[in-house]
Fold each of these.
Amino acid sequence: MPDDLQQLGEFGVIELFSQAAKPAGSRVVLGIGDDCAVWRVSEAEYLLVTTDMLVERVHFLREYITPRQLGRKTLMVNLSDIAAMGGQPTAAFLAMGLTADLKSEYLTEFRDGLLECALEYNVDLLGGDTVAAQADMVFCLTVLGVTNPDQLVTRAGARPGDRIMLAGFVGDSAAGLHLILSKSAKRLEHGYQKLIRAHLEPQAQVALGRLLASKKLVSAMIDVSDGVEQDLAHICRASAVGADIQADSLPLSKQACQLAKSAGIDPLDWGLSGGEDFVLLFCCAEDKEDQIKNCCLTELGTQVFTIGTITEDKKIRVNSQGVWLDRAAKGYDHFPGSLA
Ligand code: ADP
Ligand code: MG
């Protein structure tokens, strides 16, 4: 076994726990490995539970995100995992590690952002924990949600021939982060504000996840938090399938493409490996493709894009203009350099 975190990688670390944890509870439907854990409340209801943490200097820089935006984002990234299972979020628990220099105004702004978002999504804040942190702030949220057992959507369930679809643009968040970090004057240009907002103010697609799940239109789903390639790889692993991605069909915004061009970056890198777009990525039988596109557009005004096909052989391949690209799969890993 690799003897340090760099070698294990983030997913190696998770495996270290998932291999040893053998859930014994008879009500456990799903443990470690999907966007939420799933617990049977009754024959008519499943409880969904997810937890996600934002750490200063790892996930955010204090000087580039307002406390109000940070409060919203802390909740949004968790709601996105409930959305990925087709669930309805219900309650939240907030654990915070706070540095002594924080002003109370910072906290009230954070609180207002979080509660404003909670109100919009009908989520109640029901508890949490508050401790001191030495140098960096930490915000960790646990969110509960519910779903109907027959409407549960997991990462497993994709079948060869299924279409792979994305419910929005990818790469905007990575482009926004690039703008913020580059400190270039471009970040003040009106056209690029959308990219910065995508990074600082992501939207969880809860209504879309509910719609797809309640109409039983999708075979597998995940939210794109670590990049399309990496998150699609989670679906493929859970479903024991592979995938062919058509890079030319990837929904990249014209602003992201324009910025990438001016920075000498391949926009595909942002689209395929950029994280934190929090759009839903899902698979469906070929004959459901048009119905999904129509109902997402008419019922929610959301455009859905087909980006590829699920295959039998367990590889992810990326094609552009008829040529298979030689891409080392990238995506966000908290401990990069892993052997995994
Ligand atoms: P997501 O990006 O959807 O939030 P992650 O990649 O963070 O999912 O986690 C993948 C899976 O591993 C999830 O089921 C999560 O609950 C689980 N997981 C992550 N870290 C731990 C841990 N320290 N102990 C147990 N399970 C974990
Ligand atoms: Mg997720």
Amino acid sequence: METKNGISSASSRGAWGSKIAFIFAASGSAIGLGNMWRFPLNVAKNGGAVFVITYLVAVFFIGFTIMLAEMTLGRHTQKNPVGVFETIKPRTPWKLVGFTAIVTCVCILSYYGVVAGWAAGYFFKIITGSFKGDVTWEASAETFLQFAKNPMAVFLCLFVIVGITVFVISKGVKGGIEKFAKLLMPLLFILIIFLAVRAVTLPAAETGLSFYLKPDFSKFDIEVLFFAVGQAFFSMSLGMGILLTYGSYISKRDNLVSSAGWVCFSDTMVALLTGIIIFPTLFATPGFDPKGFEVSTGLMFQVFPIIISKVPGGFVFGMIFFFLLLVAALTSTVSLLEVPVSYFIDEKKWSRKKAALLAGIFIFLLGIPSALSEGGVPLFTKWGFMGKMDLIFGNIMLAVGALFICIFLVYIWKVKNAIKEISQGNPRFKLGPFWVFNIKVLAPLAIIAILIFLIKDIL
Ligand code: PHE
């Protein structure tokens, strides 16, 4: 029997109504600002096409592997991130991994909410006609800077985002927003394809395309690998218990491998297409100087108004686009807030309302320095507060979380049990040897290598 939030009430804990419901919900968490804001930023900062290729390799070999591992652990134990470890290895420090996941979610949400707030602000800006006529590079870059350094504007936007997220979670209508997103996300996909076509047909699109797609392998180093793996985890919502939780609602009859495959595929497509919009547009815009260019955190907000002004009906188009971006961001913020909230409900017996409200207040306060770090307060700007939070929580902590998942699955739970779980719903697990090699060897080694690089770099 299916209830209104797509989770059936067959068992008291609930389960997804169907495999498709899971794929949509997991893609809803995965697709968001990670694909459309963070991916192009990483490409721009890490050498262009060489990053794109490294990213694809990371998704295929590492992201997919960890995603399947999290879903399998979740489905087997049917628990929240702390409960997963308690069930398989009770009364050991392993549950700390679950706790770190909760902390990571809260910290990511604090600055993710700021960027989601920018999307809300831009939606408002478009409605009120801030971008009229042909938008130039200087004007667009300046508009972003003025907006991001205005404390009242960014606070208000952050407040709105955290407020909506708290509202959705406290009312337990997460399923509602997912249903809503299910209708709208295909539309976002179509708009992105349309904008990508427009971008590649701009005069002088080739320079941008070749930056994005023609790799210069001499630019490859371990730093590129580090950011590519971190981007894969961030974009696919891995390493922090979200897919563990979502996996716990998957039916034993469903095929975990193809479900994971679909989520990886849709998430990667959105990121790749966004790059096809951003780079040709950026390089083809008069006034843009690739040599004297410093990548700003607001890259996507500087570029999208330009390409939108170049399509017929740009005003309406831009409005719809930023609205959909906002919805995509909200499905991610909701999935991030659900992690701490369900922990407080399960373990501390708080009411859903109290958990959501207190977590929300804390996240808003924690978001303030990030909100002020794009020019609002010189000290935070100098530190690059938001960038530091993103480095620590969005890259390092996710990699650490994913490493623990690998170790736990391989050495504590054992691969043969995982295969048994995966085989339910997929008796001929064709990718078995590929996955086993990756989870045992490739993924942990790659993660350890990048973490060592980082420690060396810091010391
Ligand atoms: N994956 C989301 C995105 O790409 C962000 C996110 C990260 C959501 C981690 C949940 C957990 O926007």
